[in-house]
């Protein structure tokens, strides 16, 4: 006898902790369903969705690297979150159609405001957000961080970084809001016009804030580390790494060693998963069990 199920798709997918998260919640809620991981290569996406459309037990899927943009061509409808981000991390059947939506933006905002004393935009003279990457997660970060003000995008190729800067800042902003990975290693803050304000206003209620976000796969097990020189960042910079395998990436370790405020990838992963789980199984995730869940995920 079959049972309702949802799943996560990606390439690779073996590292995914989504099955642990969702099956933990299903058990807590007493829902007779399951959540799986499914390895789907780019050339297999069309066949995957063709099969799932016909499966009455399928409740939807989370989408991870590298499919967050390419899955849009297989969706019949998109909700406002996809329009805001330009990428989807969830697909689910609704009334005979496939609906694309994005819960990454929810997870990112939850993660950013999980840090003690994280700044609200109105409490700062200015906030500079730096986003590393150019995929669906970077797009979600750009959408989530519009509330903070200035953003700079970094990617291996300047063209992709400029494209995101144009989209999430304003047309023509790319020249000052885009850079390559090589730029991350250069001395920049001593030339920043805001740098004196960082020193003079430290400790006051209002000051200049930096948020550094790695939305790329760099730092994952077996991949190169993020090539950033943290020596040139203020000591209270918030460093957010979306990678969660390993949980403590080199970027986060170096940030913690400098006393910076850090956010690991599990915070976002759990936040976005909670929003997705409610869509898949029609019940809110039991967030009162977050501490137990995090302990399970870090064993």
CATH homologous superfamily grouping of the largest domain: NAD(P)-binding Rossmann-like Domain
In the predicted model, the low-confidence regions spanning at least 5 consecutive residues are: 193-199
Which strand order does the major sheet show? 2-1-3-5-6-4
CATH hierarchy, class of the largest domain: Alpha Beta
Choose one word for the global shape.
Answer: globular
In CATH, the topology of the largest domain is named Rossmann fold
Task: State the major sheet.
Answer: 6 strands, mixed
CATH architecture verdict of the largest domain: 3-Layer(aba) Sandwich
How many independent structural domains?
A: 2
Series of secondary-structure elements, N-terminal to C-terminal: EHEHEEHEEHEHEHHEHEEHEHH
Approximate helicity band: 25-40%
Q: Kindly state the number of beta strands.
A: 12
User: Helix count?
Assistant: 11
Radius of gyration: 20 Å
Distance between the termini: 32 Å
Strand portion: 15-25%
Mean pLDDT equals: 87
Which structural class is indicated by helix and strand composition? alpha/beta
Topology:
Elements: E1 5-10, H1 18-29, E2 34-39, H2 45-53, E3 58-63, E4 77-78, H3 80-85, E5 90-94, E6 97-101, H4 104-112, E7 126-132, H5 136-144, E8 150-155, H6 158-168, H7 174-177, E9 178-180, H8 195-201, E10 208-214, E11 238-241, H9 250-257, E12 261-263, H10 265-281, H11 290-297
Parallel strand pairs: 1-2, 1-3, 4-6, 7-8, 7-10, 8-9, 10-11, 11-12
Antiparallel strand pairs: 3-5, 5-6
Task: Explain how this protein is built.
- With 299 residues, the protein is an alpha/beta fold.
- The chain folds into 2 domains: 5-102 and 268-297, Leucine Dehydrogenase, chain A, domain 1 (Rossmann fold, 3-Layer(aba) Sandwich); 107-263, Rossmann fold (3-Layer(aba) Sandwich).
- It is 33% helix and 20% strand.
- The chain has 11 helices and 12 strands.
- The chain has a 6-stranded mixed sheet. Strands 9-8-7-10-11-12 form a 6-stranded parallel sheet, with helices on both faces.
- A hairpin with a 2-residue loop joins strand 5 and strand 6.
- Helix 4 packs across helix 5 (136-144) and helix 4 packs across helix 10 (265-281).
- Mean pLDDT is 87; it is low at 193-199.
């Amino acid at each position: 006898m079959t049972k309702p199920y949802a799943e996560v798709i990606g390439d690779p997918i073996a590292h995914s902790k989504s099955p642990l998260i969702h099956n933990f919640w299903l058990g807590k809620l007493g829902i007779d369903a399951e959540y799986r991981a499914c390895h789907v290569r780019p050339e297999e996406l069309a066949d995957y969705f063709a099969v799932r459309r016909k499966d009455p037990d399928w409740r939807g899927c989370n989408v991870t690297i590298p499919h967050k943009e390419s899955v849009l061509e297989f969706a019949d409808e998109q909700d406002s979150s996809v329009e805001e981000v330009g990428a989807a991390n969830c697909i689910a059947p609704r009334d005979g159609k496939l609906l694309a939506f994005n819960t990454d933006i929810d997870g990112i905002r939850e993660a950013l405001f999980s840090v003690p004393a994280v700044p609200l935009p109105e409490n700062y003279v200015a906030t500079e957000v730096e986003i590393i990457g150019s995929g669906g997660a970077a797009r979600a970060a750009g959408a989530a961080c519009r509330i903070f003000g200035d953003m700079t995008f970094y990617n291996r190729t300047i063209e992709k970084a400029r494209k995101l800067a144009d989209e999430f800042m304003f047309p023509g902003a790319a020249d000052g809001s885009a850079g390559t990975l090589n730029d991350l290693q250069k001395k920049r803050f001593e030339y920043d016009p805001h740098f004196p304000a960082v020193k003079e206003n430290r400790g006051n209620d209002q000051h200049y804030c930096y948020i550094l976000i790695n939305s790329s796969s760099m730092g994952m097990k077996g991949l190169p580390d993020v090539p950033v020189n943290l020596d040139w960042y203020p000591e209270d910079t918030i460093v957010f790494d979306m990678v969660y395998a390993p949980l403590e990436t080199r970027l986060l370790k170096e940030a913690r060693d400098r006393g910076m405020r850090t956010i690991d990838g599990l915070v976002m992963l759990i936040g976005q998963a909670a929003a997705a789980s409610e869509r898949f199984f029609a019940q809110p995730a039991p967030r009162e069990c977050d501490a137990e869940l995090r302990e399970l995920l870090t064993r």
